[in-house]
Structures are given as structure tokens and as C-alpha cells.
Hints:
- The chain is an alpha/beta fold.
- Helix content is 43%, strand content 12%.
- Helix 6 packs across helix 8 (202-220) and helix 7 packs across helix 8 (202-220).
- The longest helix has 19 residues, at 202-220.
Amino acid sequence: xxAGIAGxxxxxxxPAERSxxxxxxxxxxxxxxFERVALSLVRLDDRNPRIVTQAKLSSEQEIVGYLFExxxxxxxxxxxxxxxxxxxxxxxYVIRDGKNFIVIEGNTRVATYKLLTGQLAAPEPFKGSxxxxxxxxxxxxxxxxxxxxxxxDALMTIMAxxxxxxxxxxxxxxxxxxxxxxxxxKSGKSIGQLSHIYGRTQGAIRDLLLEYLLYLEALKLVWxxxxxxxxxxxxxxxxxxVRFLQTTGHKTSVGVELDKVNLEVKFNSAEAKTKxxxxxxxxxxxxxxxxxxxxxxxxFANYVxxxxxx
Length: 310
């Protein structure tokens, strides 16, 4: 195991991923503080890159519902209820929010403690997933050791190193990683600032933004309710159409331009959107559709051009 500050372990500790990883140590942690605080003072974070929604989650209750549906919260609760708090597990990373705190890394753990202590209630479909634990455990969980970061940006730099695949922590999902960059860009951060925060070249940051912008364009198209639900799943892999368009000649054939200078997705004709719709349907929605490396002829073999008006 790699040692952290004062030998503390930090890392996402859950049943599916019992990582002993740490974000690192040294000067980047000099302004961090380590304290034990009341659990009730720590608020869940709706901006966590693992949360991928088009509508903002407005309450901790909604965040908990999301974690149950998409992050295997019930499994983690079961483990903590059976084993108790693991003294060697990571301490959540938080930032100050007035007299309170927002947990930036450790949403699942903090949510679990709040559910087991009764500070939060599970949504109706998941109430049976929260067992009644002994009072001694509840008393132990009402306070929590945290690492207090000086700012969200300072912590995001460390998190990105681990979750973009350069550490031994689980990677953020395809959409989650790109949405995190997109949200920061929309908040006013420059490409240079994003490059520093996420540890990526400015060119790579532009690519991540264009990939998410392409996904947003896909959401604007006309889909059946079932197809739209599929596209809105946080775990959806939107990589195939992106990779397809990266093949020489494919963007021109589809009629799509990815403008890295102005950060815009441009459709060169009305039919280009129809072709893009077909591409997404074939490579993302359809079962056993063509792969990202398929030829243009394979993907568009059954393409039906729109009928021109009389």
C-alpha cells in the first residue's frame, strides 16, 4: 500500500472495489486539515463526477436515491452494517461551506452513515436496504474523520489524477468525466484553468468538451421514450459514435464538424442531423450494432435518407 499523509489511507472503499490506493502525498497536501466532525455537518455533493444527470439533484434525498439506483449504495450499506466502520478506510474529502462541509470524495460513505444513523431516510423502494444497527454503532457513526481541502479545485486536481485512469482508483464513467470538465467550463473556467485542474493538455480538454457537446446534441434529437431513457443512463457509453467520427473521412461523410477552436458541434446540412441520429442509434442504442471501428458502409448500410418535400 502507498502511504499517505501520516500513514492514513484514502481511497474509495466499497465491496466492489476495496482499493488501497491513495491520491498521493507531499506539498499538495500542505494546506489540508484533518479533523473529526459531526456527521450532520457534512452535506452530500450533487456535483460529484459519478452523478450524471441533466437535471440538478436538489436535495440530499435525491442524491441518496441516485446512489441507490446507480452506485450500488445498498451493497455498501450491507457491508458497513455487518462490519462496522473500517478503521483503515479512507476519510472522506470535504470542503468548507460556511460552518458546514460538502463531501467531494466519499458521497457513498457519508450517505451510508447518514442512513444507518437515521439522519437520512431511504426512498420508498429502498427502505428495506437499510437495516437497524445497534445503538453503539449509531453512536460511533455520528461523527466522522475528514480531510478538509482548501478548495474544490485543489481537491479536483488530486481526484482527477486518480479517476482519469492514472491511479489505482476506479475511473470516472465516460459521461461523468466529461460532464465534470463541461460543468467547470460552463461555470466560467478557461481552457488553461481546466488543463491545470484536470492534469490534461489543453487539446485534450477541448476533446473532452467536444465529446460531451456531441452527447448533448444527441439528446436534442427525436427519440422514443425507451431510447431517450437509454441515452440518459449515467452508465451509457457514448464512445462508439465519437470514435467512429474520428476515423478519416467519417465526419465529412456524416456532415458533422467538431470545431476545436470555438468548441462547437456543427451540422453542415439538415440531413447531417438525420445521419447523426442514425449513427447514434446504430452504435449506441441498437443491440449488437456495429462497432466504433466499423466502416461507413457497415454503419449506414440500412440508412434511409429523408424524403425531400414535393
